[in-house]
Amino acid sequence: MLEIQKNYVLDSHQEKVAVQIPLNEFEKIEEILENFGLAKLDERLSGEEAKNYYQSLKKTNVDG
Fold first, then answer.
1. Domain parsing of the chain, residue ranges
2. Which among 3, 27, 31, 61 counts the fewest CB atoms within 10 Å?
3. Mean pLDDT of the chain, nearest integer
4. Confidence band for 11, pLDDT divided at 50, 70 and 90
């Protein structure tokens, strides 16, 4: 399991409102989620179709 170093951000009442994680750990989580999503798409599309579809989503999110 991925060990995540986290720092909690507290509000003025000392309640946890957010968490900070190192960028490299965030990128690893992002990669895991992307791979999971591609695997799910691959169940419905060919591997190449899934990759093309995913790339179109990334391009749309960057352009939009």
1. 22-63
2. 3
3. 83
4. very high
